[in-house]
Design goal:
The chain has 134 residues and is mainly alpha-helical. Helix 3 packs parallel to helix 5 and helix 4 packs antiparallel against helix 5.
Length: 134
């Protein structure tokens, strides 16, 4: 029985392998070992990575500007896509700052904007993958 892509891929690889010179075969082996090592490192990193469902706790530095806050919030909420609507809303808040507003007033608004987008994202994720009742 042929597994999807499995046997066909093996046959294709074996045909290509047979056409290679000994030096090229050594290169293929080194490359395959490199890929395997990368895959293992990625798997280990994924085990220790924070949950993609939760925002990262990146503290605001002292005297943070509105632009720096926007950059921090984008890093803090990697699960939220920077879509046109979010960028438009954030731009309006930054424009408020440029028109004489104070960072101390704009930054909390940016934080609320991202927190609300995160809440919306979580609700959307719950609809996509409903939890299993216990």
């Amino acid at each position: 029985m042929m597994t999807p892509g499995g046997d066909a891929e093996k046959s294709r690889l074996l045909r290509a392998w047979r056409k290679l010179s000994p030096d090229a075969r050594k290169s293929v082996i080194r490359f395959a070992e490199f890929l395997h090592q990368e895959q293992q490192q990625d798997a280990r990193a994924a085990q220790h990575a924070p949950s993609a469902m939760e925002p990262l706790a990146i503290p605001a530095p002292a005297k943070e500007t509105s632009v720096a806050a926007l950059k921090r919030l984008k890093k803090s909420y990697p699960m939220i896509e920077a879509d046109a609507a979010l960028l438009d809303d954030a731009s309006k808040l930054l424009m408020e700052r440029m028109m004489g507003g104070d960072d101390a007033e704009v930054i909390p608004k940016l934080e609320r904007l991202f927190a609300q987008r995160y809440t919306d994202w979580r609700a959307q994720q719950a609809e996509i993958t409903p939890s299993v009742p216990e």
